[in-house]
Amino acid sequence: MTITLYHHPYSRAATCVWMLEELGKDYELRYVDLMGGAQRSPDFLALNPMGKLPVLVDGDAVVTETAAIGLYLADRYASGTLAPALDDPSRATYFRWALFAPSVIEPGAMARAAKWEFKPGQAGWGDFELMLRAMQSAVSRGDFLLGSKFTMADVIFGGTLRYMLRFKMVEPIEAFTKYAARLEARPALQRAEARNAKVAEEHGLHRG
Prior knowledge:
A four-stranded mixed sheet has the order 2-1-3-4, covered by helices on one side. It starts with a strand and ends in a 6-residue tail after the last helix. The mean pLDDT is 96. The protein folds into two domains: 93 residues, 3-Layer(aba) Sandwich (Glutaredoxin), CATH 3.40.30; 96 residues, Glutathione S-transferase Yfyf (Class Pi), Chain A, domain 2 (Up-down Bundle). Helix 1 packs parallel to helix 3, helix 4 runs parallel beside helix 6 and helix 6 crosses helix 7. The protein is built from eight helices and four strands, in the order E-H-E-H-E-E-H-H-H-H-H-H.
């Protein structure tokens, strides 16, 4: 049964294309016209009441949230490779950094950009500078988050970091840019970028 990804190339679903290319499994992209409001249609809301992308459908399974999609795909289709085996101690680090991206990096970056006033000790994402220090530590222990082994955590964490570098939300320090370059050398990421670009061209989309 083909995996279906509800997709727009200028959304977080673009990262899920990279996930699927790393798996090497057949999948279908189902374009969602965000500007036309297709994400608010009854059919789409039945899949994700939040009315947001990405949404992945795999048989009877429906998964939303980028990190959850990545962890699901790796466990189901690439256990022991893109996901450490259940009895592998490195699974702890794998989960740590995979979930650091949506729970710390994304809200931390938004809080800084929007100049939110809050007490770092009371916010789940804490202090921005400490967050950057933790990120630098994570990417400085080897080629990837688990050292020499690339995993789905690198897609989740690395996709977020690449976005922040692209839009100058973090300084392009050497540890970040070298890690991003290692990710960008991966054939699966290159294929995903090409596929996202093709969808954008087919629908006449241009980044603002």
